[in-house]
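G.,

No rush on this.
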Amino acid sequence: MSESAQNNIETRTVERQAQDQSDLELFEQYLEADGDFDSPERGDLREGVIVEVRPSELLVNVGSKRDGVVPQSDLAKLDPEFVKNLYEGQTVDVVVSRPPEDDGTFQLSIADALQQKDWIIAQKLLDSGEISTHKVIGYNKGGLTVEFNRLRGFVPASHIIDMPRNLSEDQRRIEFERRNGEEMRLKVIEVDRRRRRLVMSQMLAEREYRTHQKEALFTRLKVGDVVTGEVRSLRPFGAFIDLGGADGLLHVSEIGWAPINHPREALEVGQKIEVEVMRLDPENQRIGLSRKRLNANPWSDVESRYQVGQIIPVTVTRLADFGAFAQVEPGIEGLIHLSELADISVAEPLKTVRAGEKILVKILRVDPKRQRIGLSRRQALDATGEEEATTEQ
């Protein structure tokens, strides 16, 4: 090897050794410096360990060279019972609320960390479409506010079920107050952490919930089953009964054996009743119910209670061109034919009685198979005298 080549090798070796020495010195300086490998920055969500519980603050290590401080002002935002049970060595979530200053100290917040986790939960619910239950804690002119752990969710009025439209300001306030404290099934429909917007919908949640419940009911229910439901709404033709997420129709004729003009005469919204499943129509998602089938048919033993020739008190229920109908007992209605209302000398027999009036009648016929009873007020008057035949309620 030439002398020149030998010199070049020696020169490169010396340079490499010098570079290695320089790198080592820089590394040692870095280790001795006050800076951290992973210096906390404002807004960072960290997992830390409590290293000291002080009377007015906590010291928490989040992996940096210096411990962060959770001040009393932050602890005051938390549940007192939660703060009371904090202990040294416990792992807690914190957010860096103030980055390290010149002296290396920095401030942490447990309250902000809990809220950040709630925002993460809200986003997951939005992404999954999952339904969750929350309590109504207030309202404003636009809708309801609900608890969402340490956040507040908002349910617009247009997403509240059974919320009447075109209400005055006072009427809307009354509707909102009525729902205060209520537990609602809700779906998250908007999460905007920057604007602190968490919007939820009861309408969409209930629609999805009831669809699932209805599908489950149709697989579980059978005709003839007796179930307990809640009266959800009343209509002239019947009542809708909530069977646990799906509604069945209880027709007005199936509410009881006694005839009624409107379901409100026998039922009220919110009432719990037992009903029998009469019909199931999975294709059209309809359930027919009966309440009167659970009670004994009063016509089955009517002949044991009423005999031809017997004079009994009845209540006139309605008038027709051919006579008047009268209730003998709940579920048993008889007909007083026009010719049996009054003496033949009376020009307008129908005007001698009115709906709701209590009178005495004589039983002319009892036909349990056809569910008919023939009555006569005229013959009762002949037998007892008009003064005794008409009674006051």
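When you get to it, here's the other one too:
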Amino acid sequence: MAQTTGAVHQSPAAAKQRLADNFRRRGIITAVMSGVTYGNYTAFMTLAMSVGIWVGWYGEDSGLTPFAVAFMLSALGAALTDTFSALWALLIAAWKGKLGDFGRSFKTKPGAILACAALIGGPFASTSYVVGLQQAGSIVVPISALCPAIGAILARILFKQPLTPRMALGILICLGASALIGMTSMNGTEAHPHMLTGLFFGFAAALGWGIEGCVGGYASSMIDPEVSIAIREVTNGFSNLVIMVPILALIGGADGFQIISQALCDFESIKFFIIGGFACYWGFMLWYKGNAMCGAALGMACNGMFSFWGPFFCWIWIGLVFGIDGWDMPFIAWIAALLMIIGIFTIATNPLAYFARKKGN
């Protein structure tokens, strides 16, 4: 009789644990998919900045100062992608009847936190990321993937989220895989004379996204993900396009609003910015949602696979589909991807506990 009573008491607890495990598992899948979509965002934004009017702007006879080329154009590329991402976010929110929630949530404390996090992850981190890409090439992708380690540490300090030795080992494996991809990108460094500048801005992007992923993921757990990403992208798009680009243009001696209008009228590149904006919307929406479901440390580690997906989709879209040279994927990058899977598996589950259950059965 006592055993029957114990089984009855254990059943709700076991059911609750199964629900928690399933919810966490869905969060992991969501976070991994955010890295996939983020890789596409990187590819289409880079492609857009390689065609049309952008070819002339990056040419020797563009008439733009080196500062304007390095910083203003990078901010413009990030701004256009974020602006179209914001339009996609508003359209999807309106289609699902959540546009009213967007306006109301903006006035709440979690909405204000999201907007502040977006300012760190948008004008600061996104622009730094694009500056790094333009100055140092694809090595910046894995460098910026250091953000999971930063986010995990901040989540442990600010929100007391668990960071066990096993999870720390998994994060280190993922970072090691990112470094492996980065080292393959060092081939031909003579093509990037501003490598150190690019690396610096890659680290800056990692810092900004680490802060945003930690704080924004926490705030988005209290707001619908589709509403929270609308707040994020509208804040980003407006602050980048209306504030950041004109300021950098003024410093660089260029007419920012004229350059923005020329970019918007260049159909050859703008169509890729529209596609990149759609991928950007899904990348950050799934990132926020994944972080809210399984915690910032685990969510950002899974999302960190974009250090592989970025070069991978650049190879697919820019190299194979559009035939632009210089985007091949070396064999070692595939090995690094396998290491990342091992790292994420180590973070997500305890392999010893898994084998113990198999032995018990």
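The radius of gyration is 21 Å. Residues 28-360 form one domain.

Enjoy the weekend,
O.
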